[in-house]
From TrEMBL:
Pfam families: Peptidase_M48
Bias (Pro residues) ranges: 315-324
Protein name as annotated: Protease HtpX homolog
Organism name: Xaviernesmea rhizosphaerae
Domain Peptidase M48: 65-277
Length: 324
């Protein structure tokens, strides 16, 4: 199913690329766009994860440089039956995180410094479990390819502004074609992003809660991240809006509603789904027990998992688990 979805995505994005090329330069422009798209598809398959990590200047960390953060990911990956992904930190004050990579054997997860400073130990675990769920569901290839190809289509639409009105470019539609290329192509690329983004977030929320055993911790993390996203800008994401759908919460400023133009489902709906999950057999009473289900299952990352009491509990680190 994921192979078919990725193949369909590449076909749609290639068609969009060719369509914009036709509007800009006629048949010649369409053929050039096809060759460029084919080359980009091949290049993106092998290198899109590196490109995205480079966009955000992500720095890789290990058990020595970030023992508890790295340890959380290691334990969660073991619980999920996944290979250990590469672990990165993004220097951004906005709390957020994403996963990338063409398959579980070549995956990477990244969290911002803002997330690691604002969330509790259990909340960080919930977020990283969500990202590992994307890896396990093989969403990361589709997400990362979409980010790179949608960005390319948007740039091609911008080129239409420079070259579309030139009568010598064999553009059969002229100025009208230029306007269509500038407006419709980036919008169409955005719609493709949204089509793959909304349902997969609910699925990753549920699987992530299963991996970490704490749906309410993930729900709490989503609420915090969403609140900060309204207040703290992510300038790297604003410069690279085609990557917005990769994050656990939309990092861009503007509308965040359950509508056609949202890259993510409504956060309140996601939280409600996790709260409902917490009441299911196997998760009931999670918030009221003295220890979390993860602790009962032996979840350890270098320090004992604290209780689910208030955030100021002396047994809980006041900030994220990267602080010594």
């Amino acid at each position: 199913m994921n192979i078919m979805r990725t193949a369909m995505l590449l076909a749609v994005m290639t068609a969009l690329f060719m369509g914009v090329g036709f509007l800009i330069g006629g048949r010649g422009g369409m053929m050039i766009a096809f060759l460029v798209a084919a080359g980009m598809n091949l290049f993106s398959y092998w290198n899109s994860d590196k490109m995205v990590l480079r966009m955000y200047n992500a720095q890789e960390v290990d058990a020595r440089t970030a023992p508890e953060y790295h340890g959380i990911v290691a334990q969660l990956a073991e619980r999920a039956g996944l290979p250990m992904p590469r672990v990165y930190v993004i220097d951004s004050p906005q709390p957020n995180a994403f996963a990338t990579g063409r398959n579980p054997q070549n995956a990477a997860v990244a969290a911002s410094t803002g997330l690691l400073n604002a969330l509790t130990y259990e909340e960080v675990a919930g977020v990283m479990a969500h990202e590992l769920a994307h890896v396990q569901n093989r969403d990361t290839l589709t997400m990362t390819l979409t980010a790179t190809l949608a960005g390319a289509i948007s740039m091609l639409g911008n080129f239409a502004f420079l070259f579309g009105g030139n009568r010598e470019n064999n553009n059969p539609i002229g100025v009208v074609g230029t306007i269509v290329a500038m407006i419709v192509a980036p919008l169409a690329a955005m719609l493709v992003q949204m089509a793959i983004s909304r349902t997969r977030e609910y699925s990753a929320d549920r699987r992530g809660a299963e991996i970490c055993g704490q749906p309410l911790a993930l729900a709490s993390a989503l609420a915090k991240i969403s609140g900060y996203a309204h207040q703290v800008p992510n300038w790297q994401a604003e410069r690279n809006p085609a990557t917005a759908h990769m994050f656990i919460i939309n990092p861009l400023s503007g509308e965040r509603m359950d509508n056609l133009f949202s890259t993510h489902p409504n956060t309140e709906n996601r939280i409600a789904a996790l709260q409902q999950m917490a009441s299911e057999p196997g998760f009931g009473g999670l918030a009221s027990t003295g220890r979390t289900q993860a602790a009962r299952a032996g979840f350890r990352t270098g320090r004992s998992v604290p209780s689910t009491g208030p955030s100021h509990s002396p047994n809980r680190p006041p900030r994220g688990p990267w602080n010594r």
